[in-house]
What does this fold into?
Amino acid sequence: MIKKFFVFLLVSMLVLGSCGFEDEYSGDEVISRPPLNLVSEEESSVAITESLLEDIEGYDYKGKTFVIVTTDKEYFLPTGSGSLIDKAVSDRNGAVETKFNIKIEVKVSTADEILTEGVEAMSKGERYADLIVAPANVLARLMDEKCLTNVNTLPFLDGDSPYMTNELVRSSQINGKLYLLFSDLTQTELSPWCVFYNEDLAEKAGIDPWKLYKDGKWTWDAFMEYASSTSGKVKNPFVSVVDKNELLNVLWASTGNKFFGDCSDSALSVPKLEGGKEIISFMRKIVNSHLLGSSLGNEAVDKFTSGEAGMLLCRRDAVYEISEKGMNWGAVPMPKYNEDSEHYSYVDGEVLAVSVPKGIDDSDYVGRVLNAFFVATEKTVTKSVEQNEIYYYWSDNDMALQMEEMKKSLHLDIGLIYASAVKDVATVTTENLKTAFDANIAPFQFYHSTKNQFSLYAKEYFG
It folds into this structure.
């Protein structure tokens, strides 16, 4: 990419000039930026705290503790580090505490600890927490153990409010039951899958994936054509951080299909799809290609950043590691199934979600506080994350635009999320897809006993 610092600086000033954060840079910062405000840090924090929740009715809970258990320290536990995000988290938490006269207690745990302790608390009839923030597949397991509350039953929480990501709320709901919430509170928009590519290699190949995307021609056929054009110039034309079975889910999601369709207000039924055999054939073309390298996980990222792989299929949040390697890279959303379809960038079971455990002692209390968290997060943490990326990671306008495009194509299939943790869901979704792929047959053909077992499960949990 050609550096465009002057234009980029102007854009940054326009976007960020009124966000209310102090300028903060190390002494070796190359670009000189003006301060974002002229008030002291103390004055700024007071102003933010008082105004964040001015449209929400307060309530005096007389110092009651609100417990959040999370795997994610950065977005929930202020540490006093002075970073943009840490300041925003502190402001957000402080505003919520002030509004309701409460004390927020954040416990940082591993995913395994949350699963084990959550189930144990439920079995003993004890209160575990007021809020859990963890990978979606962990929360799906807790749902399967009947440890979560249907968030739609909480007073004061409105999924249709402008500060909620309405499409994500709808996509996460099954027959009116909502156990996992995805939104700005968990920075879901930072997690969709995408394609990173080596810009120097693209220039040599004479094919620009970013231009293909902007022209509406970034399809899987174009992806494979580009990969083929680089086969003599790089060891691995493309790599993926996941194995074949998980890659099938990524490819499936990129077609825009959802295993259960729009099930937000309807009962679950076994999946069915016309044209499934064609989708299986398309998947086979990608997964069985000799152009796909064998490296997985961090090794795949290393292959890309070292120049041994031309493209990398992974979650967007790998961008922070990639940005620090000094290579010329670009990024585009997941390719379209064909030119007539849309881009669908998969959100997997590792993405963070919010859940409310069973055993809370006051649903009004939890509903009020959770609602305030959603409102205040949008005004503080979300903005600080955007600033943090612009200040420290994006070197020019193109890079910033590419990262914004990922958010537009975010695709959440709640069937895929639950399948990553719940056997009865996986049987009729991802496992069936793998069986169809291996046998090269159309997916979603079931034995009568399989249908009955799934119907019983769907009725018990989402009926």
Remarks:
- Residues 51-189+350-393 form a domain with the D-Maltodextrin-Binding Protein; domain 2 fold (CATH 3.40.190.10).
- The longest helix spans residues 84-100.
